[in-house]
Specification:
This protein has helices spanning 12-38, 45-77, 85-108, 118-126, 129-148, 157-177, 183-211, 217-251, 257-263, 269-277, 279-299, 303-312, 339-359, 364-372, 380-388, 409-427, 432-448, 459-476, and strands at residues 486-491, 494-499. The chain is an all-alpha fold. The chain folds into two domains: 2-254, Orthogonal Bundle (Arp2/3 complex 21 kDa subunit ARPC3); 265-476, Hypothetical protein af1432, CATH 1.10.3210. It has a two-stranded antiparallel sheet. Helix 13 packs antiparallel against helix 14 (364-372). The longest helix is centred in the middle third of the chain and has 35 residues, at 217-251. The radius of gyration is 30 Å and the shape is elongated. It starts with 11 loop residues before the first helix and ends with a strand.
């Protein structure tokens, strides 16, 4: 198939599987639409289909065309959506729910009361703005097709207005939603959604008012009633969004700004356990999170994602917390172990972290970075210790992390920030030039060992990361004034000090 030649990473099996999944969800969507459109006609279904069968067939082909366009868009522009059945199910589930809500509200309340921005809000938060813009168009056209063609309905002006309202309100919701970092601000987005809805309804109804100006108050009541329905539709979009978003976050394991804040708060279950059982690791993670934020900001990566990844990157140390230096006192348990066993315990924390994050159904990127943040780096201390204990040659891979190497810029940031924090603290590099030397060594060593060969980070970005780390670590481990030793004694006239 010629269409597959331009991307070797996309196999024929993946291509066929994505088409099959799209077809299955298309059948489900058609079933839902047919059930909602025909359930009132069930008693005389044969006669109804005889009269309007051609219209329903036309609607079917229109929906099929929309789904084909939807697939082609994802194939050429957003192929990650097609990479898993979960992503495809998310897209169609939103279309299904939106159509059900829109049709029921339009059928039982009013066409202008539909939650027209629901798909736009959900996809924007769960997937991204680019996909949300496209899916908003698909959703608006899907409802329009059902309105105008299914059942032989006439192309009433209200249906065209509904199409314009769905498109406009959805687009505004997408543009404002990215700035809504709290749930209260989402409610304000609902206010912004109402603006185009009310404006379009007013323009539609004002012509009716002019035609029936003789009725006066009755015509004005009609305008106010429909504008009230429009207000209901805009507010309902945000209410439904806030209600079902947590369900989608869990079912589809999506990371939103709201869930991200819950995962990075001190109340998060794994972080609480890390703080209680591995306090040294917890403090290290907090410092790395601060560094990762600075690095992400320097190269334009998502700061919130960087902070979350840093907080969870070492959670695998919960399995053997006492075997890691930051959690030890004066006694080192590795003094009793062979270098090979020590290396196994140390490097296992990457896999253990991956498994722990997966077991707790946390976002995949947290698990991936926990697995990748050491890449295939050697565990130098135990390799050197083993060399001293043997006369033969050693396979350094037996003393190295198992990888994979960082696959994303965020994973590379965590790798560098994690190692830099430990290195600067170990050498007590409080001056900027000392910190810069240590961090430069960290980055160059990883470049020599090709740790960044599988992610698209550039030399310019690595330089920005280095500069951000120097500035941040110089502030964290800055020089402090040595305070004079003074003993204080309380007297009847107050407190006075004496040199100790």
């Amino acid at each position: 198939m010629a269409i597959l030649r331009f991307n070797k990473d996309w196999s024929r099996k993946q291509f066929l599987a994505s088409i099959l999944l799209f077809f299955v969800h298309f059948v489900i969507l058609i079933g839902i639409m047919a059930g909602l459109l025909l359930w009132k006609e069930w008693g005389h279904l044969a006669a109804h289909m005889k009269q309007f069968g051609a219209s329903y067939l036309y609607a079917l082909f229109c929906v099929l065309l929309l789904i084909v366009i939807m697939y082609l868009y994802f194939f050429f522009e957003e192929r990650t959506i097609l990479s898993t059945g979960k992503n495809i199910a998310l897209m169609f589930t939103m279309l299904d729910l939106s159509f059900i809500a829109s049709w029921l509200v339009g059928d039982y309340i009013d066409i202008f009361a539909r939650p027209v921005a629901l798909v736009a809000l959900m996809i924007c938060v769960l997937v991204g703005r680019r996909v949300a813009v496209f899916m908003n168009i698909i959703n608006a056209l899907l409802v329009f097709v059902a309105d105008t063609f299914a059942g032989g309905l006439s192309a009433d002006s209200a249906y065209y207005s509904s199409l314009l309202i769905s498109f406009s309100a959805g687009m505004l919701a997408i543009f404002f939603c990215e700035k809504a970092k709290t749930r209260f601000r989402v409610v304000l987005v609902g206010v912004a959604i109402v603006i185009p809805i009310e404006f379009i309804i007013f323009l539609l109804e004002i012509s009716t008012f002019i035609e029936n100006v003789g009725n006066g108050w009755q015509a004005l009541q009609g305008i106010l009633l429909h504008m009230g329905y429009g207000l209901f539709g805009g507010v309902t979009s945000t209410i439904l969004f806030l209600s079902i978003l947590p369900v989608f976050e869990v079912i589809f394991n999506c990371l939103t700004v709201y869930r991200l804040r819950e995962l990075t708060s001190s109340d998060a279950k794994i972080l609480q356990k890390l703080k209680a059982e591995a306090p040294g690791t917890y403090n290290h993670a907090m410092t790395v999170a601060q560094l990762a934020e600075a690095c992400a900001a320097a190269i334009g990566e998502n700061v919130d994602y960087a902070r979350a990844a840093a907080l969870y990157h070492d959670v695998g140390k919960l399995h053997y917390p006492e075997h890691f230096t930051e959690n030890q006192g004066e006694y080192n348990l590795h003094d009793e172990l062979t270098p090979e066993l020590s290396a196994d315990i140390i490097r296992s924390h990457a896999n253990d972290g991956y498994d722990l994050i997966k077991a707790n159904h946390l976002p995949d990127f947290l698990a991936d970075i926990a697995l990748q943040h050491h890449g295939t780096m050697p565990i130098r201390y135990f390799y050197a210790k083993a060399l001293k204990m043997t006369d033969g040659e050693l396979n350094i891979e037996d003393f190295s992390y198992m990888g994979p190497k960082p696959q994303t810029k965020l994973a590379a940031i965590i790798m560098i920030a994690d190692a830099s924090e430990a290195a600067v603290r170990a050498v007590d590099a409080r001056k900027p030039e000392q910190a810069e030397k240590a961090i430069r060594g960290i980055i160059e060593e990883r470049m020599d060992l090709e740790q960044f060969s599988e992610c698209d980070i550039t030399m310019v970005e690595l330089t920005k990361i280095r500069m951000a780390l120097v500035a941040s670590l110089s502030g964290v481990y800055h020089h402090r004034i040595k305070y004079p030793s003074i003993k204080y004694k309380r007297t009847e006239y107050g407190t006075k000090g004496e040199n100790a």
